[in-house]
Amino acid sequence: SFLTGAAKLVVVIAIFLLTFYVISQVFEIKMDANLGHIFARSALDAAARSTKPPRYKCGISKACPEKHFAFKMSSGAANVVGPKICVEDNVLMSGVKNNVGRGINTALVNGKTGELLDTKFFDMWGGDVAPLIEFLKTIQDGTIVLMATYDDGATKLNDEARKLIAELGSSSISNLGFRDNWVFCGGKGIKTKSPFEQHIKNNKDTNKYEGWPEVVEMEGCIPQKQE
């Protein structure tokens, strides 16, 4: 009976050891799998960090060269979402800032420092063109001028206002029409036409929104004014 007891004990110990071995194997595998997962995660994170595109000022697609100001702007969306103007990572005008309105939205920036000088909007549907003309006449040489339409930017425009905006470097202002979408960046004292302009006509056959064309967006690098 002693032998039977001893045999039973051996069997119990063997089962215990076997169970322990199996459990330890499972846990080791689990541990290894977890460690593997952790290492894989950190490797993936590192790869993601290295492939994540760097963020440039105003969210533009590539960095501006030295002595240039980064800008990004968009026209309004129908009569619902206001335009947005950003220069050097500063949002100058937007619906969130609550400083935009129907008509032509205008931001003036110092051409040497990139600092904001003024923002104003001029209602070209229910307003009067005279304040816009006065404003345009007071702009100092060397000032960067950014303009974006919202809802309608053209109904009240007259030849004098169009001429003053053309002198800032605009090519499209002469044929800007009712509810067209338009964004423009030019400057007072510019000697050429500005390369920074987007214009889309209001056309019921191609409009994205019922009575308005799609939003126009534009980004770029404005050369800093040198002495």
TrEMBL record:
The chain crosses the membrane at residues 6-23. It comes from the Eukaryota. It is found in: Secreted. PROSITE patterns: GG_LECTIN (PS52031). InterPro entries: FAM3, ILEI/PANDER_dom, ILEI_FAM3C. GO terms for molecular function: carbohydrate binding. Residues 102-189 form the ILEI/PANDER domain. GO terms for cellular component: extracellular region. It holds the Pfam family ILEI. Keywords: Disulfide bond, Lectin, Membrane, Secreted, Signal, Transmembrane, Transmembrane helix. Belongs to the FAM3 family. This is FAM3C protein. The gene is Fam3c.
